[in-house]
Design goal:
Elements: E1 4-8, H1 11-20, E2 25-29, E3 35-36, H2 58-67, E4 69-70, E5 76-77, E6 80-81, H3 86-98, E7 102-104, H4 110-123, E8 129-131, H5 139-147, H6 154-181, H7 192-208, E9 218-222, E10 228-232, E11 235-236, E12 239-240, H8 246-257, H9 281-292, H10 296-308, H11 324-338
Parallel strand pairs: 1-2, 1-7, 7-8
Antiparallel strand pairs: 3-6, 4-5, 9-10, 11-12
Helix pairs in contact: 2-6, 4-6
C-alpha cells in the first residue's frame, strides 16, 4: 500500500513530526526554498534575448533581463532551481511518484506558502496536494491539521512574490543610479533604503537639537530615630526648582544645607503594574538582547530550534493573541501550582499596538505548560 508524503522545511522539524504520524506517512525535508529568481550573472540568462521595453534602450533591457522579472510583460517571472537543491528535488520527485497524497507542511507565513507553491510547480501539478499548517509542533496540533487539510493560499503566494519582485525592482534599478550619482559599491533595497531614510531623518533631528542646561538636586536626610531618606528637590521657596546654571544650583544647595527639613505629611499611593503582553517576534528579540545579551541572529536561531523541537509556537508573528485552549491550560496550571488567589477572575486579552499588525497567528508561547528546561536534550545546542 502506498504511503502519503509529507514535505516540511527543515530536517529537525521532519524528525519531530515523524514521531506524531503513523507508518502510513513519509516525512521529508526540502531544506528551505528550492527555487528563486535568477542570481545576477546567471549563465543561462545571458543566452536569452533581450526583453522588449519602452524607449529606455538596450542597457535598460539588460537590467530587466538580469532581474528575472519583467514589469512590462505582466510581471512575468523566471524561476531557477537554487544551487545544491537538484538532489533534494530528485529525491522528492521519486517519492512523489508513488505517494498516495502529498502534504505540503511548510511554515504558515508567506515564505512558507511560496515554498509550498514552488514544490507543487516542481514536483508536477498532476499530483494530489494537500496544504497543512500548524502554529505548534505538538501531537494535538499535528493531528488537527492533518484532519482538516487546506489548499495553497494563492493570495499569500502573490504577496510573497510581490515582495520579492519589489526587492529586485528597487535593488536593480536604484543601485545603478546611486553608483552614478553618489559612489560605486552602494546598494539600494526595498527595506534597506527606507531604513536609511529613517536613520538620516533622525540624525538630522539630533543635530538640530539645542540643549538647555538644567540641574537637579537630591538630598540625603536622617531623622532623629535614624530613618534615612533620599529626597528629590522639586520646589524651593514655593517655586518650582529648576536652576539653569551651576551657580544658581550651588546657591540653592547652601540654603538647603542651612535649613531644617520638617516632615509635615505622609501620603500613601497604590501602584498597579500590569504584566507585559505575550511575546511577538520583535519583543522576543528585545527581551533576549536586554536580559541575555543575544544578537537578533542568535535569538532567532535558538527560537527556531525550540519551535522545530516542539517546545514553543511559531516564531514569526505580530500577534499578541493566545488560543482559548492554551489560556485554559495556563489558568489550570496557575491554580494547581500557586493557588486560586493568583488567578484573575477572567483571562487577560491584549491588543496589538501596531496598526499594521496582521495578527494571523498566535503569540510566541510554550507549546504546553508542562514544558521545562529539564526536557531539553543534554546534547542540545539551543542558545549557544
Amino acid at each position: 500500500m502506498s504511503k502519503s508524503l509529507v514535505i516540511v522545511e527543515s530536517p529537525a522539524k521532519a524528525k519531530t513530526i515523524n514521531k506524531y504520524l503513523g507508518s502510513d506517512y513519509l516525512v521529508r525535508s526540502c531544506i528551505g526554498h528550492i527555487r528563486d529568481l535568477p542570481k545576477s550573472g546567471s549563465g543561462r540568462r545571458t543566452k536569452e534575448p533581450l526583453p522588449e521595453v519602452p524607449a529606455e534602450g538596450e542597457k535598460y533591457a539588460r537590467i530587466i533581463r538580469s532581474m528575472g522579472v519583467n514589469p512590462y510583460k505582466g510581471w512575468e517571472a523566471k524561476y531557477e532551481v537554487l544551487p545544491g537543491k537538484e538532489k533534494v528535488i530528485k529525491e522528492l520527485k521519486g517519492l512523489a511518484e508513488s505517494a498516495k497524497d502529498i502534504y505540503l507542511a511548510t511554515d504558515l507565513d508567506r515564505e512558507g506558502e511560496a515554498i509550498a507553491w514552488n514544490l507543487q510547480e516542481v514536483l508536477g501539478k498532476d499530483k494530489k496536494y494537500k496544504r497543512v499548517m500548524f502554529a505548534e509542533i505538538t501531537q494535538e496540533a499535528i493531528q488537527a491539521a492533518f484532519a482538516e487539510p487546506l489548499e495553497i493560499d494563492r493570495h499569500k503566494v502573490h504577496a510573497q512574490q510581490t515582495r520579492r519582485y519589489l526587492d529586485r525592482v528597487v535593488g536593480y534599478m536604484v543601485s545603478p543610479l546611486l553608483w552614478k550619482k553618489v559612489a560605486r559599491g552602494l546598494s539600494a533595497g526595498r527595506v534597506q533604503s527606507v531604513a536609511v531614510k529613517l536613520i538620516t531623518e533622525r540624525e538630522r533631528e539630533i543635530r538640530r537639537f539645542q540643549a538647555d542646561e538644567f540641574w537637579t538636586m537630591d538630598v540625603d536626610v536622617e531623622s532623629e530615630n535614624k530613618h534615612q531618606l533620599t529626597l528629590e528637590v522639586s520646589k524651593h521657596k514655593n517655586k518650582t526648582y529648576k536652576p539653569t546654571s551651576q551657580e544658581e544650583s550651588d546657591k540653592s544647595l547652601q540654603e538647603i544645607k542651612q535649613s531644617k527639613i520638617i516632615l509635615e505629611e505622609v501620603q500613601q499611593t497604590k501602584q498597579k503594574s500590569s504584566p507585559p503582553p505575550p511575546f511577538i517576534t520583535s519583543t522576543l528579540q528585545q527581551a533576549a538582547s536586554t536580559r541575555l545579551g543575544f544578537t537578533i541572529k542568535r535569538t532567532m536561531i535558538a527560537a527556531q530550534k525550540l519551535y522545530e523541537a516542539g517546545f514553543i509556537t511559531y516564531i514569526r508573528t505580530d500577534s499578541v493573541n493566545i488560543s482559548n485552549s492554551s489560556l485554559k491550560q495556563c489558568r489550570a496550571y496557575i491554580e494547581d501550582t500557586f493557588s486560586k488567589k493568583y488567578l484573575p477572575e477572567s483571562p487577560r486579552y491584549y491588543k496589538s499596538r501596531s496598526k499594521q499588525a496582521q495578527e494571523a497567528h498566535e503569540a510566541i508561547r510554550p507549546s504546553s505548560v508542562s514544558m521545562s528546561v529539564e526536557m531539553l536534550p543534554a546534547s542540545s545546542s539551543i542558545g549557544s
